[in-house]
Amino acid sequence: MKPIRVAETLLLGAALMSGCTERNAQTGPTVTATGPFSVDVAAGKTSVVLDATGDWVDITGQDYQDEVRAEITKQGNTFVFVMTLAGAVGDNPTFPSWADALLWDFALDTRPTAFPVGYPFTKNTAASWELVIGHFVHASGFTDPLNPNSSPGILIDRRPLLTGGQAIVTPIQFTIDGAKMTWVVDAALLGNPSTFQWAAGTSAWQTSGDDVKNGYNQGRHFDLVPNAGLATWPQ
After folding, report:
1. Could you list the residue range(s) of the whole structural domain that residue 124 is in?
2. Which of 79, 163, 199, 214 has the fewest CB atoms nearer than 10 Å to its CB?
3. Backbone φ, ψ for residue 90 (5° rounding)
4. Is residue 140 one of the residues assigned to a domain?
5. 17, part of any domain
6. How far apart (Å, rounded) are the C-alpha atoms in residues 103 and 190?
7. How many CB atoms are closer than 10 A to CB 19?
8. 30 domain residue, yes or no
9. Is 59 exposed, middle or buried (0-12, 13-18, 19+ CB in 10 A)?
10. Does residue 26 lie within any of the structural domains?
11. Number of helices (H) and strands (E), helices first, in the chain?
12. CA pair distance 10, 125, nearest whole angstrom
């Protein structure tokens, strides 16, 4: 079985990452989400994890970085990822002074024996996650060359890294409705897996030097779901 906590992974870590260099980073406005939509997921295969309010990994987080529920449901040929927070996500979330990006995300481990190396982690960092479904908010003036349009909802496919390629960033359907974030992903983009392990988190990150393609290498996690181990889809 894979390690379930990797020190430099974008999502998981039991404690704050060390070595964050303080520097100024202006807060940029949240990228406007795509329009509202409705998905009936009641009959789908589901995995749900509830989380207590206020169980911070890092108490410097805000209520909109405190997860209270995370769930993944498959309906037909579509996966729906829903993260419910303790507070509504506003247009101007607070950035730590050193951070380049805020992140709300789900990370999927679909291949238990695979450890892709590279983006969105550093070029020498192996991490368990083949797929990351996320919402990035970037600091003012900061651009990620793999997501140059700052798409509000993205899928990071790390599987090409296993064969010497580059991670692929694909915009996906995403909405924010108060304290609830929802991503909708075509199952084919995920390889239509029959099962996988997953976790969800909120965090802030700094890039590795001037080349963002080298990955986000330092950060702090505000909340993690589940608190220990990984969840399995479907339950």
Report:
1. 45-230
2. 163
3. -85, -175
4. yes
5. no
6. 20
7. 8
8. no
9. exposed
10. no
11. 0, 12
12. 10
